[in-house]
Amino acid sequence: MKKYNVAVVGATGAVGEEIFRIFEEIDFPFNKIVPLASERSAGNTITFNNGDLVIKELTETIFHEEEIEIALFSAGGSISEKYASFAVDAGAVVIDNTSHFRMDEDVPLVVPEVNPEEINEWKTTGIIANPNCSTIQMVQALKPLDDAFDLVRVDVATYQATSGGGKEAMEELVTQMQDFFAFKLDDSEHKAFPHQIALNVIPQIDVFMENGYTKEEMKMVNETIKILGKNVEVCATCVRVPTLRGHAESLTLTFDADVDANEAREILAKAPNIIVIDNPAASEYPMPAACVDKNETFVGRIRNDIYRKNVLNMFIVADNLRVGAATNAVRIAQKWVEIQEATK
Ligand SMILES: NC(=O)c1ccc[n+]([C@@H]2O[C@H](COP(=O)([O-])OP(=O)(O)OC[C@H]3O[C@@H](n4cnc5c(N)ncnc54)[C@H](OP(=O)(O)O)[C@@H]3O)[C@@H](O)[C@H]2O)c1
User: Residue 166 C-alpha to ligand 1 middle, in angstroms?
Assistant: First the structure.
């Protein structure tokens, strides 16, 4: 099997570090893996497979110089906007974790458990987009239920961890908690979030749009429709909570057909990369603290609506840095390699 030259752009970030950890855990056909970041980090090293890799500066020519064939971008939308084309021109496929290309109609937006066939469309632009973290875990649970009962509407409220905002956002929560125990919380600064996040919840992620929804909420609307390939109604309320890692979502799903919670539970238990934890009598259900470092989406509290036979409620949780970002990107890379090998 051919071995590939891989670059990770944003190698020192919350998502980039997780990509390296996943690559250590799986058997990926590498020739080499090149960590890229800003000039601030260039020259530092990261540990990978018991050795040291030197971080290189992201430049316009680096993809060509390193003969990169697969470039995983997670350094922010403006970096992808500026540098993805240099990677594509050097002959690489770009797998982009930022929101920059997601709604471009020529760029496939892929969750491998849902629409893997769309990876084939990478050749149009050379870019495959990774969806928003909250969207990925949600569509993984929606797809098998849509196939069975024909989904017409999703009402979702999220409980999103601080790591969704990157490393600095996690540090802001930790610092504020330390300030709380030092009786200094009132003087604590907030930069990553619009308010204090310690001992608080904030019903705003990203900026507000003219329609009263936030950009994060509209990402869940638009990306879900694009990935499922159908005009399902989505109403999202995205909330930041003072956890470090793992996004939770409370879902109310309306189907065209009547739905039975037991049948839904069985369908979800057989779905790829979904684990059902649903034993209320023993207080067993998905929680952020139990999903850290896991590559699956956890589903529980599956129950019929009290009033409507075609409505189902459930609670889902996944590690946003893994399932919501790094794991999905690496799974896309694995499928892309499979396609290259199959079409040789
Ligand atoms: N966190 C999540 O749950 C999540 C989920 C899905 C998607 N994403 C997306 O993934 C991207 C990264 O998120 P993150 O949470 O990993 O952020 P982060 O922890 O803040 O890391 C940012 C990374 O970008 C690099 N970077 C910044 N400016 C750069 C420049 N001018 N040139 C090269 N590299 C530069 C940083 O390198 P230095 O260390 O050198 O500054 C660092 O490696 C964002 O677009 C985010 O929306 C995040």
Answer: 7
